[in-house]
Each structure stands twice: as structure tokens, then as C-alpha cells.
Model the fold of this input.
Amino acid sequence: MRLLVINWQDWRHPMAGGAEVHLREVFTRVAARGVEVHVLSCNFKGGEEYEILEGIHIHRVGSRPTFNFFVPSKLRELERRFRFDVLIEDLNKLPFYTKFYSSIPKKVALLHHLFGRTIYEETNPLAATYVYLQERLIPKLYRDMPFIVVSESTKEELVAGGVPPGNIRVIYNGIDTEFFHPMKKYAQPTVLYINRFRRYKRPDLALKVFASVKRRMPEVRFLMAGKGPFLPKVKAMAERMGVRVDFLGFVSEERKAELMARSWVVLNTSAKEGWGLVNMEAFASGTPVVGFRVPGMRDSVRDGYNGFLVDYPDVEGAAERLLRLLDDETLRMEMSRNAREFAERFTWDRAAEDTLRFLKEIA
Done:
């Protein structure tokens, strides 16, 4: 079987995120099982037009802002060179509408989450409206295609838009429970925010939660790790608010694993997730998560079991839950054990096997 996956970026791209983690973890395993996998993605400075990465054929064209305009011609070129059995279109922000021009006999849509109106928190109104309207077309134009989604929340969104439930297969993400594992916690109470600094991830709300906690527990240390276009504004906001935060910037995977494991609690204030990879990394590290009861977050965080959820955007409610965990060592240790046990149920091997089984059914 020969597959073609269209994803906006591959995992070597400087702006690679959770979708690219999924791409790598799932499809390198699929390739290792004897399937020929090709990926079509955008190019970047220093990138090659073609290379083989971990057994996968990577074809790059265009740039991040122009990739969707290059897809039709590049796809037709690849179709002339290879006989693909299944096309997997990753619907990440904008659809490529391959059903209207691809000759590959079987097509599958892969979806992590829809932005919906949260896109207006991320970019200017004109660009946000463009993305929003494109997303609104997905359930209508793709309703007859089989879908792979990573959470029940995403399935519910598609069904609400008109996609038949029988067309949707939920295949949960995995987590590397050997790389992310529990370590000795910091002696000082420590709360970690680790995410891309994008508006819809709402690091500004994390600052407000931090400020509320700090007033009642002055000894707490707050760490914020990650990079992104919203970072300068968050730093300026922290200075105006007088909130003491250690901004760590971009951290390596090894450093991230250490921060996850040694922090007492991870705070994830995102307005929307597909599944919540950050949450799963925290759980594998034996660290509970506090966040908002929004799509994706409510799939991975079990309120009262491996963390706490409050209604969005209840800053004081999130602060109360953080204080409760920081104050109560017995509760915190119980949730840490629960978090690790929960993470151990999800493996990338299982995700890859389920994906391959589904694609074989389609083929």
C-alpha cells in the first residue's frame, strides 16, 4: 500500500507543533510496518525539496503562507509519478479541497480540531473571517469522506456541522511514557505554563491566574516556556501587572520533559485544543493539569481525577483549583499517580495500528 499525506508542515519545519508530532509518531510507525508513505508539505529556509526522513518520503513546495496554492499542481505531479492507494488530507486551519481535483481513488480527512470563533483571538478580523468561513465549508464539502479525528470533541463538532457519525473514526493520540516520566519535584511550589505563545492559547489568562495565586501564596514560582508572536506582549503585560514570572523561552525536548516532571502543576489556559498534547506530556510526567472546560481539554483532563477544569474564562476558578492542589499534598500526590496511570493507556504504537487498520479498510 502506498499513502500520500498532505500536511501544512513536516516535523523539521521551524514552526512544527502538535499536528507534526502526530504526523511523525503515527506515520513513521506505519512506514515501519511496510507501507510506503509520502508527505507533501511546505518548504522553509534550509529545507530540501525532497528527502527521506525516518523512512518517509518528504516532498516540499511553496512556503507556509503560499502552500495551499501550490498543492494542486504538485499533487498532480506526484500522482503522475506514483500510484497512491489512499490520500490523507490533514485539515489543519485551511482545507485543500483535494476531492475536486485528485485522482487518487480513496481519500481520508484527518482533523485535530476546528478553530471556530477562537480564530478571532489569534489574528486580525479579515484573516480570521477567511479561516472561519473556510472551516464552515468542511462539514458541507467533506461530509461524504471518511474522517480520522483525535477526540470526541472534534467528532461532536463535525456531527453538529452535518457529517454522518458513521463516517468518523476517533483515534486518540499517543504519548511517549518512557521519555516523559516522573522525577523528583522542585522543593519550591512551582506552576508551569508551557505552550506556543499564540493568542488562542491565552497565556494572558495564565498571567492573571498567576497573579491571583501569588497574592495568596507568595512563595509560588511561575515558569512560562515557549515561543511565538504573542510572547513580547505577554512579557510587557507581566511587567505592568507586577507578576514575577521566569520566562524560559524555547526549550529543548529534554528540558521540557524535566520541567514537566519537576513542576507541581501544569496550567493550560488554551481556549481550544484537539486533544491536548501538553496535557498528556504532563500526565506522563506525573503532573496534574488545571485548565478550562473547552473542546480538547475536556477530553484529556478528567476533572477531579488527573486535574481540574473550570468554565472558560474563569480566572478566579482556575486560581482556586491551583491553590487547592498546591496546598494539599495528599490530593496532589493522588492526582499525580492518576495522571501517570491515565497516560499509560495511550501509546503511539496503538494509534499507528488503529490508523493503519482504518486505512486498510478504506483501501
Notes: The CA atoms of residues 134 and 306 lie 36 Å apart.
